[in-house]
Amino acid sequence: MTRHICGDTHDEAIENGATAHTIQIMAAPLFELTDVHVATTDGTEIVKGVDLVVNVGEVHALMGPNGCGKSTLASALAGNPDYEITQGSVKLHGDDIVDWDPDVRAKAGVFLAFQYPQAIPGVSVRNFLQQAVQARTGKDVSTIEIYMALSEWMDTLNMDTAFMDRFLNEGFSGGEKKRNEILQMALLEPEIALLDETDSGLDIDALRVVADGVQAVRGRKPDMGVLTITHYQRLLDHLQPDHVHIMSDGRIVTSGGMELVETVESEGFDAFAGVGG
Predict the structure, then answer these.
(1) Which residues in 103-137 are b (16+ Cβ under 10 Å) and which e?
(2) What gap in Å lies between CA 201 and CA 186, rounded to an integer?
(3) What is the pTM of this model?
(4) How far is CA 159 from the centre of its chain?
(5) Other CB atoms within 10 Å distance of the CB of residue 28
């Protein structure tokens, strides 16, 4: 049985009396960045003007060499206080979220899968996700609902159900941590999922499981947008992004399709040096 514990479908929202304003903003892009600049708290500018539009159901890939600003951008979009969006707008369904606190962004449906997920001793996966889903939906979620949803998705992600009662990421392998990030995404059903190098450190089998998990979540929530940050072609071979963007020195220098990924694989990021400058 398919279990949705976050959000209403579009038809249900209409039936439940969605306002004219809500219907109107659904015509806006899902996630839109306009001239986004990001600096560290000491004022060092890292992201130097990014424009990007993710429409409903689209998968975008962001690639670039180390230090070009990819992970900084993702962290800033999620509201990490170590970074400040100093210029530009970030709109979710037409609403500018730049001034929203991280928890408000998360409740609205902005999800970040971390490159290096942190362990939280004393907090079980089950309890963490029950609290997170309740915060996301604003509704009480029963223990049995969480158990059933976790069991279903853990089976999809090839995770032992014993993990739901282990402390979050404590003692998890790298692959288990990444699968747990996708498990969180599955239960929270975000509007936009930011995947920050979710494929790093994974062997080919774990990569396939994680990629299949992302696709399974998209199958359940086809209107979800995805922005995945990666250095490698192997994840994108599974996800088949609609758009690929190459970032260099804090800017997106070119955009296209999978042909850009093939260029990166054959020539490296040096092939884009000076492009868009």
Answers:
(1) eebbbbbbbbbbbebeeeeeebbbbbbbebbeebb
(2) 21
(3) 0.88
(4) 20
(5) 15
Nearest CA to 5 out of 96, 136, 103, 164 is that of 136
H helix intervals, the chain: 10-15, 20-25, 70-78, 102-108, 125-137, 143-156, 174-188, 204-220, 233-239, 258-267
pLDDT for 181-204, tens place per residue?
999 999 999 999 999 998 888 888
Which tens digits make up the pLDDT trace of 210-236? Answer: 899 999 999 999 999 999 999 888 899
Residue 225 tokens read as: 């947008």
CA-nearest of 174, 53, 43, 183 to 124 is 183
SS3 249: coil
Going by C-alpha positions, the residue among 150, 194, 223, 161 that lies closest to residue 61 is 194
Place of tokens 């990421």: 169
Give the pLDDT band (50/70/90) at residue 24.
very low
Distance of alpha carbon 3 from alpha carbon 12, whole angstroms? 16
Q: What residues does each domain of the chain span?
A: 57-79+110-272
Q: Would you report the helix, strand and coil content of the chain in percent, each value rounded to 5?
A: 40, 25, 35
Which CATH number is associated with domain 57-79+110-272? 3.40.50.300
